[in-house]
UniProtKB/TrEMBL annotation:
Organism for this UniProt entry: Coffea arabica
UniProt keyword list: Cytoplasm, TPR repeat
Ranges occupied by TPR repeats: 951-984
Biased composition, class Polar residues, residue ranges: 285-295, 527-538
Entries under SMART domains matching the protein: TPR (SM00028)
Gene3D superfamilies membership: Hypothetical protein (hspc210), Tetratricopeptide repeat domain
Protein name: Clustered mitochondria protein-like isoform X2
CDD domains in the record: CLU-central
InterPro entries (alphabetical): CLU-central, CLU_dom, CLU_prot, GSKIP_dom, GSKIP_dom_sf, TPR-like_helical_dom_sf, TPR_rpt
Highest rank taxon of the organism: Eukaryota
Bias type Low complexity, positions: 716-725
Length: 1222
């Protein structure tokens, strides 16, 4: 944890900083796991025990005297007391045995508070309690704030702490209520949520109060849903329909409705492998064939019907069972019914609910919702719809269908509300047929359900397709493969920009503009059939055309045009669309073009951004976030992997993510059928199969095992729950399942992973995938996705069975939710980014501060968005020269990221890296290096040692060592960074030039101008090939080459005036090399370094920040672009004279190394070398140090003779200001 700047800002920099042990060279990451946790602080114990006395409850005659409670206390001195709590005071009574004596003791210990009484009876309590208060007071205020939904930790303490007796803990466990209130009425989650949405929000303060209430209620609901789901999955809560099969059970607990979803992807894999086995004649018995065919036709009891939800209650009570699947129902309809229960539908429903909540249409309501994955099961939790479980509500369904379009209900009042939301969500009003041939006009998916609750509110449920279906995935089993809302927004803006461009080139009058609009409307033909008012449409078109003619593509005009692009959510589905064939074809073409835009434009652009490091994910989670932010679904991960095959770190990242996602489904399937007492062993065995080499004898194919198990379940689920039957028949069935899984070996597991990857991601895992997988990042990612906690010890991951059952410490629920945040604060942050990019530091600081204040009032300090505000505030203060203020804000971000994202999250690692640069700016180099060490550890855990961010951090570390004069250590890190970038990014990448430039600068600081010229020549050659000779960065590199060459000639000329190399100087050089053997390795590495380093455009910006002191270290995705913008800000601020910072410590070059280099350069005597060294040092120290590392670089414009050229920190910075997200 970063220290407070107040205590360190005035400390002088130590001239000698000891090298941190194996800093950054963490090839054996497993051995570094124990370093993740800091040593636990000494526990301060105040009392031995304090529990409710067995005298409770007070007898009636004592209650009349005011007695409320009795407590038994054992102090640290070993004394035992019985304390009485009354309506006025606490006092020690005279009870000593098994009989209550309520009289006060003779010493008359009493106080108005319990703490005050304990301080009187125990001096050790008083001392320890004071220490606790002092520790709390000395900590950062944010460290005392509780996080509402803390992240799951995949690592647990090792050795395992002793489990001590704690009566209070035991009492809490006995009162376990799975989230419900023990005292008073249970909370009505739905009423609380909807009442908060009805709060007034016309003024900023009203909006803050409304957002805070919504955030608090939703957070409490998610917390209660997690506890309730654990109780449901643990079978501690009874279902409301116990006679149905267990997979159809529904639960109501704590006014929350729970239902199960199934893993349809795994079922699809089982069906595919069973059919493949039949095709290749590997099915040996006709009974197995019959079972497989029945399973294929019926989709198993898990998927045979929709997942039970609250609309099922409506369905059974109102429509008398119309959801029963009969033989005359089309197969597509049966398939759609089966897919309602899938993981994908639950995910889509959550995203749809969140979209409608953000649309915030008055009078249209949604239920609170959360998805909980625990022990292999997925539970969907929803607030209870008022009146849905009581009585006959035959008139409550007013909109949509409960039977997949057989009967559609419609209401004008409901339709008006849904239409308003549809306009905000870019959904088109369209017409559909029901089974009877009636036509209905809808503005939402057919299967959505508009219900009026008993509270007379209009609720919209089952929002599983609020965006159109992906036209690239239209086969069976892909009904819920829908486009992401980010893609819809991007596509609409792209179409609007293209249309604006075409309109500008046409005639400037209105009629000409209209003709151009019609002529260029091919990308979105459905605009012509948009079912909105003709008058309003014409007015809006005329307005848009005038704006185009007057402003030539203004942003507001583009946004207005994009609003006209609406999508029909029911195209490419089994529903029968009404309307003219031209309109339907136009709607389909509209969706098809959006899908092609995803496949042909966004996907290649994203792959290009990955290769240029514009987007640089560190692990699977950040890769998923980057995909979603760009509008790309995870199902395209295989195509991303194919596009990045030539980039080793991206190829490994995509490969690991596909392996983890495939293994996750198989592990969850194993957990679902594992008894409680075998969970640890089953998880350990799975990990051994995945990472070790388990080869059991007599192993049957895992697919056949799963098929037989599922078929056995399918034959019995119609009458009773399969798990309850297995229990009631005999205990041996569970042991049989367990033993069958233990027979599972490594080859079977990896075969299933390969098949799943091929089925789900259309990706063929390479033959060496088992060897290429980075084991620590894969373990970390898999544990995060399943909720497993393993012991933090050193594992022999190359062994046969590296894991034991005792290594599995916990299994935690994994949650997906839609907790709202303040939209007003988001807008302020986006506006602040614009101001920051334009160099308006004061305005940006005001906006970020206001957003920070709003978020603190809405969410409290422990929230990811608050951390983002702190990061931007730190960036603004850094570029304004206020290092102490930047450290304070960065410290806040670091604490929040550790508490809300996790100790080893990539954002936490980048927080440590930024903190290190800020400390370095205050000349606190030792603290900076320790923070860099922590950042390297976290980066190695999340991505492994081979990642461009690790190389970037190496360069930052090298610049810090260079500033304190430890040039041999700096060279070691620079060479290591160059090797990594060469291996990861190739020999002709722009970032290679940055690495060579960093080495050239380092050698220049040491006076090795020959080596500087050689490395800068390599920089120049790469830039010429990649950017051309006319690019400003190439010209900057050429100027550096001239400067280095000029300095080399000047030095040679000075030495040739009267001094030549003699035997003494040669002997001196030999003595230096003997005394410093590490110099030999450094020069050998420099001589061999003829390859090229590699790095990316985005990394080049932050690496040059380290070299030239112009930017913060590179973060991921949007943050790296913000860092680029911040670099531009810094240059503008420097021009305005806003940058004020203390000068750094003079560079102290190593005398032996500098003497040797001077001897090599021009063959001078040691005495001349010393004098030349002093001259070089003076020249270097005449320039102010850089903030991020290379503190000795002159960034002034070179003159014709002796001035240093413009630094590549400015030149190599890509001129991509327009790309900064606004």
């Amino acid at each position: 944890m970063g220290q407070s700047p107040s205590g360190t800002s005035g400390d002088p920099v130590k001239s000698e900083v000891a090298d941190l042990d194996s800093l950054g060279f963490m090839e054996n990451v497993s051995a570094s796991l124990s370093n993740l946790f800091s040593p636990p602080s000494k526990e301060i114990q105040c009392v031995e025990s304090i529990v409710f006395s067995s005298f409770n409850p007070p007898p009636s005659y004592r209650r009349l005297s005011g007695d409320l409670i009795y407590l038994d206390v054992v102090t640290m001195e070993g004394n035992k007391f019985c304390i009485t709590g009354t309506t006025k005071i606490f006092y020690v009574n005279s009870s000593t045995g098994n009989i209550l004596d309520p009289r006060p003791t003779k010493s008359a210990f009493e106080a108005t508070t319990l703490v005050g009484l304990l301080q009187k009876i125990s001096s050790k309590f008083k001392k320890a309690f004071r220490e606790i208060l002092e520790r709390k007071a000395s900590a950062h205020p944010f460290e005392n704030v509780q996080s509402l939904l803390p992240p799951n930790s995949w690592l647990g303490l090792y050795p395992i702490p002793d489990h001590k007796r704690d009566a209070a803990r035991a009492e809490n466990a006995l009162t376990l209520s799975f989230g419900s209130e023990l005292i008073g009425m249970q909370r009505d989650w739905n009423e609380e949520l909807q009442s908060c949405r009805e709060f007034p929000h016309s003024t900023p303060q009203e909006r803050i109060l409304r957002d805070r209430a919504l955030y608090k209620v939703t957070s409490d609901f998610v917390d209660a849903a997690i506890n309730g789901a654990i109780g449901v999955i643990s079978r501690c809560i009874p279902p409301i329909n116990p006679t149905d099969p267990e997979c159809f059970h529904m639960y109501v607990h704590n006014n929350i409705f729970f239902s199960f979803a199934v893993d349809a992807d795994l079922e699809q894999l089982s069906r595919k492998q069973a059919s493949d086995a039949y095709a290749s004649n590997r099915i040996e018995s006709s009974g197995m064939l019959q079972s497989s065919s029945e399973k294929t036709a019926n989709h198993l009891p898990h998927g045979a019907q929709r997942v039970p939800d609250q609309s099922d209650s409506l369905n059974t009570e109102i429509l008398n069972g119309v959801t029963d699947l009969t033989s005359d129902v089309p197969s597509e309809t049966q398939l759609s019914e089966s897919e309602q229960a899938t993981y994908a539908s639950a995910n889509n429903d959550l995203k749809g609910t969140k979209a409608y909540q953000e649309a915030d249409v008055p009078g249209l309501y949604n239920l609170a919702m959360a998805i909980i994955d625990y022990r292999g099961h997925r539970v969907v939790a929803q607030s209870v719809l008022p009146g849905i479980l009581q009585g006959d509500k035959s008139d409550s369904l007013l909109y949509g269908s409960v039977d997949n379009g057989k009967k559609i209900c419609w209401s004008e009042d409901f339709h008006s509300k849904v239409s308003e939301a549809a306009n905000r969500l870019r959904l088109k009003e369209h017409r559909v047929f029901d089974k009877s041939g009636n036509v209905f006009k809808l503005a939402a998916p057919v299967e959505c359900k508009g219900i009026v609750g008993s509270d007379d509110r209009h609720y919209l449920l089952d929002l599983m397709r609020v965006t159109p279906r992906d036209a690239n995935y239209t086969g069976p089993g892909s009904r819920f493969c829908i486009l992401r809302p980010e893609l819809i927004t991007s596509f609409c803006h792209a179409e609007a920009a293209e249309r604006s461009k075409s309109q500008v080139t046409s005639e400037m009058d209105v009629s000409g503009g209209t003709d151009s609009l019609d002529a260029n409307a091919e990308p979105v033909p459905s605009i012509q059939e948009n079912p909105v008012s003709a008058g309003s449409e014409m007015q809006s078109k005329e307005k848009v055309e005038k704006e185009v003619a007057e402003e030539y593509g203004c942003q507001s005009e583009s946004r207005h045009i994009s609003e006209e692009i609406l999508f029909n959510p029911n195209v490419f589905t089994e529903f029968n669309l009404a309307g003219s064939p031209e309109e339907i074809a136009a709607d389909e073409e509209n969706v098809r073009k959006a899908s092609l835009y995803l496949k042909d434009v966004l996907l290649p652009k994203f792959i290009q951004d990955l290769c240029t490091l514009e987007v640089s994910p560190m692990d699977g989670h950040t890769l998923t976030e980057a995909l979603h932010a760009n509008g790309i679904n995870v199902r395209y991960l295989g195509k991303v992997a194919e596009g990045t095959r030539h980039m080793p770190h991206l190829w490994d990242l995509c490969l690991n993510e596909i392996v983890v996602r495939s293994a996750k489904h198989i592990l969850k399937d194993a957990l679902r059928d594992t008894e409680d007492h075998d969970l640890g062993g089953a998880i350990a065995h799975f990990f051994n199969c995945l990472f070790g080499n388990i080869a059991n004898k007599g192993v049957v194919n895992s697919t056949n095992l799963r098929s037989q198990k599922k078929d056995h379940v399918g034959h019995q689920a119609s009458s009773k729950s399969f798990k309850s039957q297995a229990k009631s028949k005999n205990r041996g069935s569970a042991r049989k399942k367990q033993s069958s899984f233990l027979n599972f070996n490594s080859d079977c597991l990896w075969f299933d992973i390969q098949e799943f990857a091929k089925l789900k991601y259309q990706f063929e895992l390479p033959e060496d995938a088992r060897l290429r997988a980075r084991k620590i990042p894969v373990i970390r990612n898999l544990c995060h996705k399943v909720g497993v906690t393993v012991a933090t010890r050193r594992y022999d991951l190359d062994g046969v069975a590296p894991f034991q059952a005792s290594d599995i410490l916990n299994l935690q629920p994994v949650v997906k939710h839609a907790i709202p945040v303040s939209s007003e604060a988001k807008d302020l942050v986006e506006t602040g980014k614009v101001q920051l990019a334009e160099g308006m530091l004061s305005e940006a600081y005001t906006l970020f501060s206001e957003a920070f204040t709003i978020l603190q009032q809405v969410t409290g300090p422990m929230h990811r968005e608050v951390a983002n505000c702190c990061r931007y505030l730190a960036m603004v203060l850094y570029h304004a020269g206020d290092m102490a203020g930047a450290i304070m804000q960065q410290h806040k971000e670091l604490i929040i990221n550790e508490r809300c994202l996790g100790l080893d999250h990539p954002d936490t690692a980048h927080s440590y890296g930024n903190m290190a640069l800020f400390y370095h700016g205050l000349n606190q180099t030792e603290l900076a290096l320790r923070h860099m060490s922590r950042a390297l550890l976290l980066l190695s855990l999340s991505s492994g040692p081979d990642h461009p961010d690790v190389a970037a951090t190496f360069i930052n570390v090298a610049m810090m060592y260079q500033d304190i004069g430890k040039m041999n250590t700096a060279l070691r890190y620079l060479q290591e960074a160059l090797k990594k970038n060469e291996r990861l990014l190739g020999e002709e990448h722009i970032q290679t030039a940055v690495c060579y430039h960093a080495l050239a600068i380092a050698f220049n600081c040491m006076g090795a101008f020959k080596l500087s010229h050689q490395h800068e020549k390599k920089t120049y050659d790469i830039l010429v090939k990649q950017l051309g000779e006319e690019d400003s960065r190439t010209r900057d590199s050429q100027n550096w080459m001239k400067t280095f060459k000029m300095r080399e000639l000047q030095m040679n000329a000075q030495k040739q005036k009267g001094q030549a190399l003699n035997s003494a100087s040669a002997q001196k050089a030999i003595d230096i090399l003997k005394a410093h053997p590490d110099l030999i390795h450094a020069f050998q590495a420099a001589a061999v370094g003829g390859g090229s380093g590699s790095s990316s455009a985005a990394t080049s910006k932050s690496l040059n920040a380290a070299i030239m002191g112009e930017a913060l270290p590179r973060a991921r995705g949007v943050d790296e672009r913000a860092a680029r913008a911040a670099a531009e800000v810094r240059k503008k601020a420097a021009a305005r004279g806003l940058l004020i910072r203390p000068h750094g410590v003079p560079v102290q070059a190593l005398p032996p190394l500098t003497q040797l280099l001077n001897i090599i350069n021009s063959g001078v005597t040691p005495e001349a070398a010393i004098s030349e060294e002093n001259g070089v040092k003076k020249e270097v120290n005449d320039h102010p140090p850089s903030e991020a590392g290379g503190g000795s670089i002159d960034e002034s414009k070179p003159g014709p003779q002796d001035q240093t050229p413009v630094g590549l920190g400015t030149g190599l910075k890509q001129k991509a200001k327009a790309k900064v997200p606004l």
